[in-house]
Specification:
By secondary structure, the chain is α/β, with parallel strands linked by helices. The chain contains 30 helices and 34 strands. Helices cover 31% and strands 19% of the residues.
Length: 880
């Protein structure tokens, strides 16, 4: 058994995993019990990593205009096109759009090429979409982009406040850590602040379901209330902070008292008072904030409003307390360390500061360096649309889906003279629009480091050979740099050499002026780099890490003091109108990641949320004429989306929630980026992805259906979504025009040629009911079910199980067409527990038949909920 220690590639928790390969070459994935981030736990996504190793749609060779070419030709072509455009239009006519999926070493060389050699700062990252507001808030308050806390603070806190964070689904291992902390210390209180009641609320002693966008009012009110009621840490405020008076004046003006806060936030005054009393009376408070704060047109101010409360009470730099930004991506933090954002230099240095520019240029020994901030993501694509930026290199991300106003982003890509994409996947909405495609390695194949939400730098180590001609991103970037004539600055032969340079830059002319310092690692040997243990920066001279920042009351502003920020709360930019009366909120679901390129190929992960849904309060659904399980047409002036209706009292009236994951590769019309306006925070440039306004109406389908097929097919229906199931793909279908001949429709969809001999079907034209199955060599190849009503379609899960069989007996074929399982219990229902593949029907049956009363009972009986714990809130709901 060969074991490789590496790091999960999904979220910013940064869990350590052990990948084991047995003598037959079979891989398995286990949590690393020694990694400080997860201490032996993994969530459902981490547990299922092994299912995503063999991607069926890899980009394996370089391509120009769809034709395979050699690496030399591809590299030279990219270099020539970029060079020509730079010579004709200047350095700012080219850009890179990179990703929190890149490793730090990849990020470092991309940034060096653009800012240090090309001389433009037009390199931005998709991390702009998830945490750039937190970066700016940290910088304003602490003088540098610094996360004060450590995950151990979650174990030691007496009060955890989660603001705009559905950690139960988005940072599951940290949520389970909080669950364990609460079990170990029943006095620990948890408060959730979110317009939605989410799975995270399940842990809360108090939930504040405030009106969307009013977080700054709530925290300004808290600041004023704490000061007025004698809860200021006077000595800390005097010795270690500046700006208290202005911040308090603004807080009093905007949130004068509990009643005013309650009215503005649309909360009960008692609820606000309870929260303020709890915050005031608890010394060890950790305030976790995430995308609900960051993805806002006032996200930076919201971050500072909550940081202000920690500064006023001196609750920072000590065990069990501090403001704590949970990052979305696996290496958003690493990108921040090397200057992956267009308004940063490397090593936490400022692009606007001439001395910092001189320092970096002196270290790199390059002839030019960008002298001003580059274009942030939304501005960048607008500049492409207007023709100012003419060449774009996109690395490891899918902006055609994930950026706001995605229709305009696609227009920009269509207009762009030269679109280069380096990716590991052959088809994404973005890769499909590229002129030049460069095959990149992915998780399990590449070598380097990542940094998680609590500043822990961990190794990602390879355990798979490189497929086809794919290369690591840093190698591709270095080859293009050499072809552009910058070879002397890119001599690297390994990720290790790049990492050492990155470490050396962090220490260069530092002398304690900058917190980010990993200087002791600049002399690591290759063996030491390979053996690097997870460590939190900054490093002490002896190479030891630092769990918590600011313990000495010293900050990294010019004065050495933390800065209070006077915050004027601003409402979201989109306001409800009679035409668009609903607020649209977006976010993640439990088992999916980004635009489904990885999790979308795992049957286990896809089973939990098989379709894009719109969550809506049942009263709103009734008023809009929407039915549970029907299809909703969600639209505004920018575009339209179709999603399955899911009613929920956890949703506020007047607000709806649609997940962010579905792209054109997995649906006909479910990319929610179509509905998000390109509105951004004026400081961070982060888009307001949590607040668009939309209309929600029924999509009047004439027919509903589903298709399960071993091969991927191309259904031409107004509504379709695709998920991977065991041995096949499953499509949910609906159309607004009924067919005059379903048999002809089926043959066109399912057959390529002469399929009649292996064909069995049932058709009742009067009831618009059609069922067909196609067999190849006795094995079920595909089946199609059509009905006038979605409720009359059979359950999918047992039909999927038939695809595991080499052949079907006559009785099984008959049951297939009848739409009823041959044996009772074959239909498990929708997957609830992804770790042990336990379905909803199985759980309901066991609860009823065996009198199960608790989540523990279910665990003992079915194993469900006993591994990652992500499904526990759903198990509780089923028990209720
Ligand atoms: Fe991966 Fe889950 Fe850990 Fe995030 S919480 S790093 S997705 S295992």
């Amino acid at each position: 058994m060969k074991t490789t220690k590496t790091t999960c590639p999904y979220c910013g928790v940064g869990c350590g995993v052990l990948v084991q390969q047995d003598d037959n070459g079979v891989f398995s994935v286990k949590p690393d019990p020694e990694h400080p981030a997860n201490q032996g736990s993994l969530c459902s996504k981490g547990t299922a990593l092994v299912e995503t190793l063999a991607h069926p749609d890899r980009l394996l060779y370089p391509e120009i205009n769809g034709q395979r070419v050699s690496w030399d030709e591809a590299t030279q072509t990219v270099a020539n096109r970029f060079r020509t455009i730079i010579e004709e239009h200047g350095a700012d006519a080219v850009a890179f759009y990179v990703s929190g999926q890149l490793l730090t070493e990849d990020y470092y060389v991309a940034n060096k090429l653009m800012k240090g050699c090309i001389g433009s700062a037009n390199i931005d990252t998709n991390s702009r979409l998830c945490m750039s507001s937190a970066v700016a808030a940290h910088k304003r308050a602490f003088g540098e982009d610094l996360v004060p806390c450590s995950y151990t603070d979650l174990d030691q806190a007496e009060l955890i406040v989660l603001v705009g964070s559905n950690a139960a689904w988005c940072h599951p291992v940290l949520f389970q850590r909080m669950v364990r902390a609460k079990k170990a210390n029943p006095a620990l209180k948890v408060v959730t602040i979110d317009p939605r009641r989410t799975q995270t609320t399940d842990l809360a002693d108090l939930h504040l379901g405030l009106a969307p966008g009013t977080d700054a009012v709530l925290f300004n009110g808290l600041l004023a209330w704490l000061a007025d009621n004698g809860h200021s840490a006077t000595e800390f405020v005097t010795q270690s902070t500046n700006g208290i008076d202005a911040a308090l004046e603004m807080a009093h003006d905007s949130a004068p008292g509990v009643n005013s806060v309650a009215e503005q936030c649309k909360l009960e005054a008692e609820t606000v008072d309870s929260f303020y009393q709890l915050f005031a009376s608890t010394e060890k408070v950790v305030t976790v904030f995430s995308q609900g704060i960051n993805q806002s047109s006032s996200g930076v101010d919201k971050g500072n409003a909550l940081i202000n409360c920690h500064l006023l009470t001196g609750r920072i730099g000590k065990p069990g307390m501090g403001p704590f930004s949970f990052t979305g991506q696996p290496n958003a933090m690493g990108g921040r360390e090397v200057g992956g954002l267009a308004n940063q230099l490397a090593a936490h240095l400022d692009i606007d500061n001439p001395q910092h520019r001189d320092l970096v240029q002196g270290f790199w020994q390059t002839s030019c360096i960008a002298d001003k901030a580059g274009l942030k993501a939304v501005e960048l694509f607008e500049a492409i649309h207007s023709g100012k930026v003419k060449a774009l290199w996109i690395m490891a991300t899918n902006p055609a889906v994930s950026l706001p106003d995605s229709r305009r982003v696609r227009e920009a890509l269509e207009k762009c003279e030269c679109v280069v994409v380096s990716d590991c996947v052959r088809h994404t909405d973005t890769v499909d629009m590229a002129h030049i495609r460069l095959p990149a390695l992915t998780w399990g194949e590449r070598d380097g480091t990542v940094t998680n939400s609590d500043r822990t730098i961990s190794r990602q180590r390879p355990f798979l050979p490189a497929p086809g001609e794919a290369k690591q991103d840093w190698e591709i970037i270095c080859e293009v740099a050499r072809a552009m004539g910058f070879g002397t600055h890119f001599p690297y032969r390994s990720a290790h050499e790049i990492f050492r340079e990155h470490a050396a830059l962090s220490a260069f002319e530092n002398d304690g002026k900058r917190c980010f310092d990993i200087g002791p690692w600049q002399h690591l040997s290759a063996t030491e780099y390979d053996a690097l243990q997870p460590t939190q920066w900054p490093l002490h001279a002896d190479g030891q890490g630092t769990a918590r920042l600011f313990a000495d009351g010293k900050f990294f502003t010019p004065s050495g003091k933390a800065q209070f920020i006077a915050v004027t709360p601003r409402p979201p930019q989109s306001t409800r109108t009679p035409e668009h009366p609903f607020v649209l909120n977006t976010g993640r679901v439990r088992d999916h990641w980004h635009t489904l390129t990885r999790t979308g190929i795992s049957p286990r992960l896809s089973a939990h949320s098989a379709e894009p849904t719109v969550e809506i309060h049942p009263c709103d659904a009734r008023d809009q004429g929407l039915q549970e399980g029907g299809i909703a047409h969600i639209h505004n002036a920018l575009g339209a989306v179709l999603a399955r209706v899911k009613t929920s009292r956890n949703q506020q009236r007047g607000s709806v929630f649609v997940p962010m994951h579905w792209s054109g590769q997995f649906s006909a019309a479910a990319s929610v980026g179509r509905l998000i306006p390109a509105v951004t925070d004026p400081i961070s440039g982060q888009p307001e992805a949590k607040h668009a306004t939309v209309a929600v109406e029924p999509f009047t389908a004439q027919w509903h259906g589903f298709l399960i097929s071993r091969r991927k097919l191309s259904p031409a229906s107004a509504y379709y979504t695709i998920i991977k199931v065991e041995h096949a793909w499953r499509y949910e279908l609906a159309g607004n025009e009924t067919s005059t001949s379903w048999p002809a429709f089926a043959r066109q969809l399912l057959c390529q040629e002469d399929c009649a001999s292996n064909w069995t079907e049932y058709y009742d034209p009067a009831r618009q009911t059609y069922r067909a199955a196609r067999f190849i060599g006795g094995q079920l190849e595909s089946c199609l079910f059509i009905s006038a009503s979605a409720g009359l379609l059979p359950q999918r899960e047992w039909l999927v199980s038939l695809f595991a069989q080499d052949s079907l007996q006559p009785a099984e074929r008959a049951s297939l067409l009848a739409g009823k399982p041959l044996r009772a219990g074959e239909d498990r229902g929708r997957t609830v527990c992804a770790c042990f593949n336990v379905g909803e029907k199985t759980i309901r049956t066991a609860i009823a038949a065996q009198g199960l009363k608790s989540v523990e009972d279910i665990g003992r009986c079915l194993n469900a909920g006993t591994n990652c714990g992500s499904c526990v809130p759903e198990l509780k709901a089923l028990l209720q």
